[in-house]
Amino acid sequence: MPRHDVARRHHSRPVAPISIAVIFLAAVHAPPVAARESTPDAAARMLSMAAMEKDGLPSLSVALARNGVIVFAEAYGLADVENDVAATPRSVYRIGSISKTLTAAAVMILAEDGALDLDAPVQKYCPAFPSKKSPITPRLLLSHRAGIRDYDYRRFNEEFLSTRRYDSLEEALSIFKNDPLEGNPGTEYQYSSFGYVLLGCAAEGASGVPYEKLLKRRVLDPAGMEQTTLDRPDTIIPHRASGYGKRSDGSWANAVYVDLSDRFPAGGLLSTPRDLVAFGNALLSGTLLGPDALQSMWGAAPGTDHEETVYGLGWRVAPGRNEVFHGGTSVGGSAYLYIDRDGKIVVAFATNMGLWTEPRHELARRLAATLDR
Fold first, then answer.
1. Long-range pairs, 216-220, Cβ under 8 A, ≥24
2. Which of 19, 143, 273, 352 could cross-link to 348 by cystine, CB 3.0-4.6 Å?
3. pTM of this structure
């Protein structure tokens, strides 16, 4: 049966959350991790297992790195509940808005090359987007200050749960390109996934190649991200984890079918925590970007204060802590990527359920702290 048909079905009986004993057995029997340089820290394992049990997650995959070396990579639970398939560190998950950090890196690489001007009107690179009352630039799109709207939750099924296939980013612009801006560009922070779809179109125009090829050539391959790819439901993707949601009684249900072709640069990528950690390592080491471009990306953009964090160019920034991070939530998947710049520590984790109530940032910090033991 095709994957999209399976995704529409729901379990006919409740599924009880996995116990820590089952999680431990799955971890013990998981294949060894080639990149692991030392014995995994027991504290990191127990933090991961406790977080998984607390939220009743079908599976959880975690990777930690320090000084460019992966020192912990384990997965617990089931990548496919119906077929009793254990999760491994190679299980591939939807990473939601962490996709924005990869798009931001590609755009900053083009800017560093001189192929894209961060402060030029976006129509220079994406003429399919109509002019607005004030100029919109790639820099404003990167920092969510362009006034582009986000998903209209009054049209939740049509937009966030879209099942329509879009053949190009230019075609996906049709969802929002004719809508009025919701703020004056450059004056206020307003998170927008659609803004990153427009940014992807601009990156295509500046590079002369499709977004997928640009991302692979300039970000994924140099960083050694072997399993990160666009989430196409009809493509056979090895080790793809099945996605789940949760019913009111706490049991799991298969996630509804969605087609993410309307948001690839914003939230439509698949990856593994090991790949995400490799991405963080490549940024810290200067493999992808020089220090000036990296500092621009990881510095706070004006007017982006939001609760306890600010937004840079594609990343959230914690003032005073020299750490950057981004979360992602999609239908049937949730992930988190955290970088401690001072300690050169990278933490990533992912699950195959869209809802996650455990504070992910605190979990990332606690996992990072295990490397100091």
1. 218/106, 218/109, 218/110, 218/288, 219/102, 219/105, 219/106, 219/109, 219/279, 219/288, 220/102
2. 273
3. 0.88
